[in-house]
Amino acid sequence: MTSVFHVADANQLLAGLPNAERDACIAVCETVKLTFGQVLLEPTDTITHVYFPIDSFISLIAIIDTDNRLEVAMAGREGMLGASCVLGVAEAPLMALVQGAGSALRIKAVNFQGLLLKCPVLHLRLKRYIYVVMSQLAHSAACNHFHRIEARLARWLLMTQDRAGSDQLHLTHEFLAMMLGVRRAGITLAAIALQTRGLIRYHRGEITVLDRLGLIEASCGCYSKDKALYDNILPPPL
Questions:
Q1: CA-based torsion, 27, 32, 135, 169: positive or negative
Q2: In the predicted model, is pLDDT for residue 110 greater than 90?
Q3: pLDDT digit string (tens) for 150-194?
Q4: Which pLDDT score, from 0 to 100, does residue 2 have?
Q5: Three-class SS of residue 52?
Q6: pLDDT, tens digit (0-9, with 9 covering 90-100), for 47-66
């Protein structure tokens, strides 16, 4: 039980809950390991569990057809998977693909619904989180339409670095192309441009972030706006 108490603090949505709500969450959750490439949900699947990542992170991917997919959101220790359950909808809207292996807290959907009824602070934080995700989805749509691939790649690398907690990222051009919804050649040119500026080093599927501040400048402001929105709506506990 001690380990569950410890990991509950590692997810920002659960950190700082009142003791009674914390105990209620711990009573119905389990710690699970998520593996890279694991598909947790497909579009229209019934959500049977919700996940609160600890040191893992999950890509939410819109699927147009077999050959056209686009990552539209990401959930790490700052968020959760299964937010539609907060709205009373048990159908998954997007594919959920584990991008970063690690651990997560998992709660059965039926138990999660019970938590929402008796945990008002948790319920409020999750509603605020949904607002943040909605705003970030809108920003992401605009960014994908108006901004250059280089800026979008910089933003995506920063988001991934935040959740991975490391400067070393294992990312192939093929994977990045799928996540950003562009051709592999576009990713290659964007990565070369960022490397030429001394912001990253790329070699055989390994990307190293060399200059984080420079990468933030290259990210067209979208990364900083998203981060500021989260910090404003969901400030850390005192």
A1: positive
A2: yes
A3: 999 999 999 999 999 899 998 887 888 888 888 889 998 999 999
A4: 40
A5: strand
A6: 999 999 999 999 999 998 87
Report d(CA 172, CA 9) in Å as an integer.
32
pLDDT score, position 204: 79
Residues 6+ apart with CB under 8 A from 128: 233, 234
Q: Specify the amino acid at residue 230.
A: Y
pLDDT of residue 70 exceeding 80, the answer is yes
* Number of neighbours of residue 99 by Cβ within 10 angstroms: 25
Q: Is 194 helix (H, G, I), strand (E, B) or coil?
A: helix
Q: Which stretches does DSSP call E strand in the chain? A: 29-34, 39-41, 49-53, 57-65, 68-75, 95-100, 102-108, 168-170, 200-203, 206-209
CA distances from 98 to 42, 83, 202 (A): 12, 16, 22
CA distances to 61, 65, 67, 71, 212 from 181, in Å:
10, 12, 10, 8, 24
Number of Cβ within 10 Å of residue 30's Cβ equals 12
pTM: 0.90
C-alpha distances out from residue 28 to 1, 21, 76, 115, 148, Å: 12, 11, 20, 9, 45
β-strands 200-203, 206-209 pairing: antiparallel
**Cβ pair 51, 81 in contact under 8 A:** yes
**φ, ψ for residue 232 (rounded to 5)?**
-75, -45
Rg (CA), the chain: 18
3-state percent breakdown (helix, strand, coil) of the chain, nearest 5 = 50, 25, 25
229, pLDDT greater than 60: yes
Q: Is 107 helix (H, G, I), strand (E, B) or coil?
A: strand
